[in-house]
Amino acid sequence: MTEQTPSSTEAVTVSRAGSQDSYHGPAEWFTGSVRVDPLFAVRHPAAGSGALVTFEPAARTDWHTHPLGQTLIVTAGCGRVQQWGGPIQEIRPGDVVSIPANTKHWHGAAPTTAMSHIAIQEQQQGSVANWLEKVSEEQYGS
């Protein structure tokens, strides 16, 4: 006989696709056309949140860091990711990108192809990212 573990007093919830409003990635954090579809928000005591982010061709984030790191799961298209001082890496559907805490980087679509990824990160002291300077055209390599 298997011993049963007591259940939490909280109920299991289902967040329906499309139940949260999409928004355009703000120009102060992105170059080009970017749509963010929130998937889940922080639910204490957990600190994680996630979103489906869609970049039109050549769209990208600014340079930024995450206090507790970030995981990207590419779902469609072709994209790029670069760590400060490192080479640009191509990313495609099914690829999982693990970005360590406080690592300066950017990510976005390829020059002629859109890209979507699920972004998962945790907040620390209310912040999930520290936004830095724009990625120049030369850095992007278009």
Automatic annotation (TrEMBL):
Pfam families: Cupin_2. Residues 1-22 have a biased composition (Polar residues). InterPro entries: Cupin_2, HNL-like_cupin, RmlC-like_jellyroll, RmlC_Cupin_sf. It comes from the Bacteria. Residues 52-113 form the Cupin type-2 domain. Residues 1-25 are annotated as: Disordered. This is Cupin domain-containing protein.
